[in-house]
What does this fold into?
Amino acid sequence: MILWIDPWIKKLWYALIQPDLKIIDAGILELEQQKFDRIQQYQRILEITNFFEDLFKKHKIQKVVMEKYFITSFNLKNAEFIYGMRWSILSLVLKNNIKIEEYTPIELKKRVTGNAKADKQLVQKFITKYFKLKDIPEFHDTADALGLAFIGTKTN
It folds into this structure.
């Protein structure tokens, strides 16, 4: 099975699919609270770590695919927290001897649509059609999750 993870501060998207692209689980770990202190951030990392630890115990995951994180002026103040979450997840991946792949948003668009400059709606439409979803994913990040999981099934 392939697990895709996009760790962000308020919402963390994930998708778990089989190599035949059957969706096993996909969702968002969402934090309702708007502002929180450092201790609450650490607790959030622990909650996320526990969630994925349980997921790894329930499913035989062969590969984890993550979006490459890059710092911009938009996400600078959240970088420390996001890197903490990433390392927590990556340590679980390494501990469980699971293969890891990382892709940039441009690589995702190129591999899914054939166009590195495709807009988010095109990725959502492709994912909806490819996975035979009833509705277009509400969040583009959900489509990204399935897109990266799709890419993960196409690589060794």
